[in-house]
Design brief:
- This protein is α/β, with parallel strands linked by helices.
- The chain folds into two domains: 52 residues, Membrane-bound Lytic Murein Transglycosylase D, Chain A, CATH 3.10.350.10; 264 residues, Glycosidases (TIM Barrel).
- Helices cover 34% and strands 23% of the residues.
- Strand 8, helix 7 and strand 9 form a beta-alpha-beta unit.
- The longest helix is centred in the middle third of the chain and has 18 residues.
């Protein structure tokens, strides 16, 4: 199996003949939106026997915010590629109680497919950053104990095996309070036989400024947690200017710092599997459209766009004009960028990969994940 970049004017039959494979096999493995229209710069997985990829073991987590019955087919479809699934999420209230979610169908489906269900708690929502919630809860002993009680009750009642804490926008003055809470939570969960994890913003050093970073103490997370998910995405923020969502040159800076303070066997590489479409010229605060990588490719085919590739960020992008003459810029993931990320996971000898977020179709990713790794299956009972 290899990855090939389409040259100007090339057609599927021509490429298939050159590699002595059938056109149907290329169509199937790439889920091509239009086999009769290949784009200049489009990446294709070619199902040849060479070169073989050396497989290594990796644990794979997938966050899921399609809840209830809507999440069941997503879990079922991605089950062969997952170690664990994390429904997103239980939001913490000021008194330490939790806003419940419809996660039971997902947990049942996960169990039936041998996937470990992980409970997730957050201090924020789609409209509230959450720094005030964190401040209130983390500095009140009664709220902390109430939160721990609600976590343990929910885990036992629902059948979760572990906990993921995704506290973001923790105020700098609450850093030590957050560390103390993590120590209490780790002790409480370990005593009950559960594992505990955190998701952390992508820091490149201990003194990095900014609300996302100052309250997060990488060494403490590395010491207390069973594993730590690096949220190595969102450089291309939906309200910011168009750019690669997960630029590999920036991710490497995060990894270079993380491995000095967190054991590699505890680190998970955060992998985004969505795309963004920005209107041009960019207006500060105007939201980009978030779509799947497959939808991004379909859009490129529809507008006959030429796909370009940023070698520094290791990320594909293209521009097009819509029916109203407005220019757009789209950044997404393809076979090249996925393979580059998998190569990085191997190079840094990381324990796992965590996808944000399941439910956005990206067929090439799953093919390459299977070709690169032996996916760890945990005992589930």
């Amino acid at each position: 199996m290899l990855i090939y970049t389409v040259k100007p004017g090339e057609q599927l039959m021509q490429i298939a003949a050159a590699f002595q494979v059938t056109p149907e096999s290329i169509i199937a493995i790439n889920d091509l939106p239009n086999p009769f229209r290949l784009l200049t710069g489009q990446s294709l997985i070619i199902p040849t026997a060479e070169p073989e990829i050396q497989k290594t073991e990796v644990s794979v987590n997938g966050y899921l915010y399609f809840l209830g019955e809507d999440g069941v087919p997503i879990v079922r479809e991605t089950a062969p590629f997952l170690t664990s699934v994390t429904p997103f999420s239980y939001i913490v209230k000021e008194n330490g109680a939790l806003r419940s979610i419809d996660d039971e169908p997902i947990i049942i489906e996960a169990e039936e497919n041998g996937i470990v269900p992980i409970m997730c708690i957050t201090n924020f929502s789609s409209t509230v950053k959450g720094q005030n919630i964190a401040n209130v809860v983390l500095n009140n002993e009664e709220s902390i104990q109430n939160l721990l009680n609600h976590i343990l009750f929910t885990m036992k009642y629902k059948g979760y095996r572990g906990l993921n804490i995704d506290f973001e926008y923790v105020l700098p003055e609450d850093r030590e309070s957050y560390n103390a809470f993590l120590a209490l939570a780790a002790d409480a969960l370990h005593r009950e036989g559960y594992f505990i994890t955190t998701a952390v913003a992508p820091k490149i050093g201990p003194d990095q400024k900014g609300l996302l970073y100052e309250g997060i103490d990488y060494p403490v997370h590395g010491e207390l947690m069973d594993y730590v998910i690096l949220m190595t995405y969102e450089w291309g923020y939906r309200f910011g200017p168009p750019q690669a969502i997960s630029p590999l040159n920036q991710i490497r800076k995060v990894l270079d710092y993380a491995i000095t303070v967190i054991p590699r066997e505890k680190l998970y590489f955060g992998f985004q599997i969505y795309a963004r479409d920005w209107r041009l010229p960019h207006i500060e605060g105007r939201e980009a459209e978030t779509i799947s990588c497959q939808a991004a490719l379909e859009r490129a085919v529809y507008y006959d766009a030429e796909i370009q590739y940023d070698e520094l960020a290791q990320s594909p992008f293209y521009r097009y004009r819509d029916e109203e003459g407005r220019e757009h810029e789209v950044w997404f993931e393809d076979a090249r960028s996925a393979q580059a990320k998998f190569d990085t996971v191997k190079e840094y000898e990381l324990e796992g990969i965590s996808y944000w977020v399941l439910g956005y179709p990206f067929p090439q990713n799953w093919t390459l994940l299977y070709e690169n790794f032996e996916i760890v299956q945990w005992e589930n009972g």
